[in-house]
Amino acid sequence: LGRGGRLVFLSDDKPTHFQSWLQIVQTNQSENVSWAVLSRQDVLTRRWQTTEWDLLVLFAEQESLVLELNFQLLGQRLLIGGGASLSDPSLYDFFFAVTDLSIWTEFWQSFHVKRQEMGFQGVGQTPALFLDRDDVLVKNVPYNKEADRVELMPGASELVARAHADSYWVVMVSNQSGLGRGRIAWSEYQQVHQQMLRLLAQEKCWLDECLWASYIDSESSAAQGPLLPSWRKPRPGLFQQAYRKLQMSMAESVMVGDSASDLIAAFQAGVGHLYLLKTEKGDQEIQILQEYRLQHSQLSFQVVSHLDQVKLASTRSLRRK
C-alpha cells in the first residue's frame, strides 16, 4: 500500500462478519486508501486483476479459494484469524491473528500516520536508457518472424554497454503491430526477440526490461498478446509500466527512437533527454515533431545519424554534483 496499491477483498466464501470488517475500512480510510471487492469470476476471467502493490485481505474461511486462485492473486496477503488451522501458511505474508473488530478499527484509524512514515531509499535516483527496437536496436525487417534475419544496428551493443557502465537501466519499448494484426504468431515473436537477446549477449550486453505494445486499432480477434491501447506509442503506457517496476529518474532518462511517436511518448512520460535516430523517414518524423512542438513548447530533441552520438554521461554528471 505504500506505493499506491489497493486494499482488496474477495467476495466468495466470505465469513458471516465480512461486511463488518469491510465497513471499518470504508469508514476510516475512504479518502486515504483505494479498496476493491473482487469476485472469483473477476479474477479468473482477468476482468479485474490484482497487482504486486495490492494488499489482499483474506479470511480463514477462504483458504480453498486462495488455493484455487493462488497463481492469479498478485500482491501481499494478509490473513485474518485462523492461522493455526491452515494447511499451507506459506501462502500468506502477514497474519492478523485476533478477530476483535475493535483492534481492526484502531489499526485503520492510525494507518494514515503509519503510511506517511513509509519511505524507500534510493528509489527514483537512477535514470534509464529507453530504446525502440526496430531501426534502433535491430535493423528493421517489417513484420519479421524469422530469427535468422535479426541483425543488431551499428553501435547498438556499444550504446547499451555505455549505459550499463554508467549505471543506467536499459529498457526496450517497442510498438509491435504485427502481433495486433495477427501477422506474427506469439511463438514467432518470441524467437525473434530471443535471437536479439542472444546477439546482445554475444557482445556481453543485456536489457534490463523489454516491453512491447501489440495493440492496434480496428483489428481482428487474431491478435496476439495483451491489447492495451495506452501502451501503444505515442501513448506513454510502456514508459509508465517500466517506471512502475524500476522506479527510475525519468527527468534524467534518455530515449532513442526513429519515429516521432517514440519521442512524443517519452516526452509525455517525463523522459528528459530525447534523441531521434535519423533513418530514411527522418525528415517526415522531424516535421511531425516540429508541429507537435507548436502546442508543446517544452519538447526538446536532438537528431543523430549514429548511435555513438547519443550522450549519456552529461545527464549523470548533473546528479553527481
**Biggest sheet overview:** 6 strands, parallel
Low-confidence stretches: 317-321
- Helix count from the secondary structure assignment: 12
Output the strand order for the largest sheet. 8-7-6-9-10-11
Through-space gap between termini: 33 Å
How do the SSEs run, as a string of H and E? Answer: EHEHEHEEHHEHEHHEHEHEHEH
* Residues in helix, %: 25-40%
Structural class by SSE content: alpha/beta
Q: Please count the beta strands (DSSP E, at least 2 residues each).
A: 11
Mean pLDDT: 88
| Oligomeric description of these chains | single chain
The portion of residues forming beta strands comes to 15-25%
Task: Categorize the overall geometry.
Answer: elongated
Radius of gyration: 24 Å
Features:
321 residues; alpha/beta; 6-stranded parallel β-sheet; 5-stranded parallel β-sheet; 35% helix; 15% strand; elongated; disordered C terminus
Summarize the structure in words.
There is one protein chain. This protein has 321 residues and is of the alpha/beta class. It has 12 helices and 11 strands. Helix 1 links the parallel strand 1 and strand 2 (35-38). The two termini are 33 Å apart. It is 35% helix and 15% strand. Mean pLDDT is 88; it is low at 317-321. It has a 6-stranded parallel sheet with strand order 8-7-6-9-10-11.
